Amino acid sequence: MSSAAAAATINTIAQWLNYVLAIPMITVGFIGAILTIIVFKQQKLFRRNPSIVYLLSGAIMTTIHLPTVYLQSILVEGFQLGLYNTNDIACRERNYLFYVTTVAAISYPCWAAFDQYASTHREAKFRHYWSSIRFARLAIIGTVIFWTIIYFPLIFVSSSINNVCIVRDGPYRIFHAYILTPIVFIMGPITLTTIFTLGTIRNLRSSAFSNRHDRLAKQIRRMLIPQLIILAIFGIPFGIDSVYQDITRNVQKDILRQAIEHLFAEITRVIYHVIFVSTFYIYLYMSNDVRKIMSRLIHRYIKKNDVVPFNISSGKAISMRIIRSTSVSNQYR
User: What residue intervals traverse the membrane (predicted)?
Assistant: First the structure.
């Protein structure tokens, strides 16, 4: 097989990754994020817990990221539409929104891990200040503002050149590629989640907190730990690929190498978005309260589809389940 034929085959595989995996992932992830918001807002106890408030904020950011940013990437890579590769304004919007929404979304589980550490701290003053709804709200707003400012220069240094959306050469590109990206996607999540998780375990083992293992706190930790593990591990390939792409951006590459690198980039992007897609289903599996709330919501939805006609002769309501149109038509044949 020639290099051109091999490259064409690899590019076809990369396209099919978008059809087979990426599109279903957006759908499942978006539904999961919406359900997370609904479930967490159903119970007052959830709304008063700072860790849940952080996770709720992450779900809200996911509902923005998946349809507005990841969908653009699928349309470009899977369906060969121009969008941000052919228009400077679209390129700047895509790069800016991609990093702000992505980094904000992965920051909130790290804040939740910090809250678990703070809420189990020995000092009451430390707990009351750092593990509070007031501080959580400040942290959530501050996180968005911080990343909005940090990535603001992307609006001015992004452009479409030769039908490719890139970050132009300059000091910010170097800062973004070799400092910000490794910290945000590789070292930061691993370091923060490890420090706060180990700190929480150490606090829980202390005698001061031997009797503070309430049921909700245990469930939150059960939900949070798998999410943090996925966040810490699945971001590594994406971060490495981003740095590699920048290092080799000026290297002459044949079509086969370009195809292989493009396929690897698509694989790392799909792997990375597992972070966004899996959260609700982790919560559903790990938390009894989440399952109970979902059960009540489903039961409530089913009850809305029941018809309760009134029997005039007896004056009693008769409960009758809706009969599908196909069943009715079959009955009178």
Answer: 16-40, 52-76, 96-114, 135-157, 177-201, 222-240, 270-286
